[in-house]
Design goal:
2 copies of one chain form a homodimer. The first copy, chain A, is α/β, with parallel strands linked by helices and about 220 residues long. In chain A, about 55% of the residues lie in helices and about 10% in strands. Chain A is built from 11 helices and 6 strands. In chain A, α8 crosses α9. Chain A is globular and about 50 Å long. The interface of A and B includes residues 163 and 164 of A.
C-alpha cells in the first residue's frame, strides 16, 4: 500500500461507494446525496441508502441554520465527531448538555432521564438549535412533546440506534416534524448512532462550505 | 411508551438481540460473546456476529491489561465513547495522541500521517497499552511495522471502517498479531468505526467489572 494523502483516500472512497450505489440500483435524490454518501462512508453500511428519510429541503434548511447556529448533540461522542473547524468557519458552535451537573440535577428533580432533561435545557437556552440525536430515544420523545407545545428547532436529526423504543421514537419524531413543518433527517428502523449523527452534521457542514467555496470539497 | 430505566432497556435490548442471534443460527463462542453482543447493541448490525475475529484468549488478556492499564485510541470520538467510570474502577486510563500539537509536529517532520505519528508516541510513552483503532488504517499499518521491529502492545483492537486500504490493513494486523502471539480483536471487511472501537473497550471493561463483582452487570 503506497502512502496516499487523506484527501485522496476520501475522494477514492466516495468514488467506490458511488459506483456501488449505482451497481445496486440505488438512486439518491438531489440535496440528500451528500448526506447519504457521508453516512455510508462513515459506516460502510449501504442500508443507509434506504433507511434515511428527509423532509423537503431539510438539507438546505440545515445548511442555512449552521451559519452562526448551534448544534446540540445528545452525547459527547457525537459532539467529538462534529468537525469543529468546519463549524467555526460558518460561525457556528456545538454543545452537549448531557454531562453537565445542572442537567443531572434537573433530571433527578423531574424524575426523567438526563437525555430528556438535556432537551429542556436546549429548548430554554438555544431554541433555534440543530438537534442531533444519535443515542437516546427519550431525547427524541421529549423533543416531539415540546414541539407539540410550540417549540420549533431549526432541524431535528433523529438517528438513535437500538432495540428498545428506538424504532417507535423515530417514527414519532418523523410524524411530528412532517406535520408541524420542522425540517428533519431520520434513520428509520434500528440503525443509527453517535457516529451517524456526527456524519450527518459534517455532511451539512461540508455542503455549506462547498456553497461558500465550491473548490473546497470535491 | 412507558418510562423505562436505562438499565432495564439495556437488559431488554440484550435479550432481543440474543434471541435474534439464536433465530439466525449464529453461535457465539465463550469469552467473545459479551464483545460481539455489545458491538451489535451499539450498531444494530448483525454482520458483526460474523466479521469479528479474536485471537485465542484475546478477551481474557484484554481484561487483564485493563487493570491499571492504558487504552490508547486513534480518535477523540472513540476516546469519548470509552466508559471513564468503568475504566477508573479498574485503575485504568485512556488517551488519544491525535490532536496533540506534538503529534502534528512529528508527523510533519516524518512526512507521515498524524495517525502513524501517534502510534510512535504510544509505543514510546505507553508501550504496554491496549490500542483501539477505529478510524485510521495507517495507524494499524504502523502498529504492524513496529511489532515486526519488536513492539508488543497488550492488545490490538483493529476496527477501522472504510473503502480504501481498510480491508488490507486489518488483514495485515491480523496476520502479524497471530504470528507474533499478540492478542487481537479485528473486524474483517469494511465495517468498523470509532463507535465499534469504544464498544469493544466497554465490553472488556464490563466483563472485567463482572469478574470483580458478578452482580454489577447482568
Amino acid at each position: 500500500m503506497a502512502h496516499i494523502k487523506p484527501a485522496d483516500i476520501e475522494r477514492e472512497s466516495m468514488n467506490i461507494l458511488t459506483a456501488e450505489l449505482t451497481a445496486r440500483g440505488m438512486v439518491l435524490e438531489g440535496e440528500t446525496e451528500a448526506v447519504v454518501k457521508r453516512v455510508i462512508h462513515t459506516t460502510a453500511d449501504f442500508d443507509y441508502a434506504e433507511n434515511l428519510r428527509f423532509t423537503p429541503q431539510a438539507v438546505a434548511r440545515g445548511v442555512e441554520a449552521l451559519r452562526g447556529g448551534v448544534v446540540v448533540t445528545d452525547t459527547h461522542m457525537a459532539l467529538s465527531g462534529v468537525s469543529k473547524p468546519a463549524l467555526a468557519r460558518l460561525g457556528g458552535t456545538a454543545r452537549c448538555f448531557m454531562a453537565d451537573p445542572e442537567t443531572a440535577e434537573q433530571a433527578k428533580a423531574a424524575g426523567s432521564t438526563r437525555a430528556a432533561a438535556a432537551v429542556l435545557r436546549a429548548e430554554a437556552e438555544v431554541p433555534a438549535a440543530i438537534l442531533a440525536v444519535g443515542n437516546a430515544p427519550t431525547a427524541l420523545l421529549r423533543i416531539a412533546e415540546r414541539m407539540e407545545a410550540g417549540w420549533r428547532p431549526a432541524l431535528v436529526i433523529g438517528v438513535p440506534v437500538g432495540f428498545v423504543n428506538v424504532v417507535e421514537s423515530k417514527e414519532r419524531i418523523w410524524e411530528v416534524c412532517t406535520r408541524l413543518g420542522v425540517p428533519a433527517i431520520v434513520s428509520l428502523g434500528r440503525k443509527g448512532g453517535s457516529n451517524v449523527a456526527a456524519a450527518i452534521c459534517n455532511a451539512l457542514l461540508y455542503t455549506a462550505a462547498g456553497l461558500l467555496d465550491p473548490s473546497s470539497r470535491n
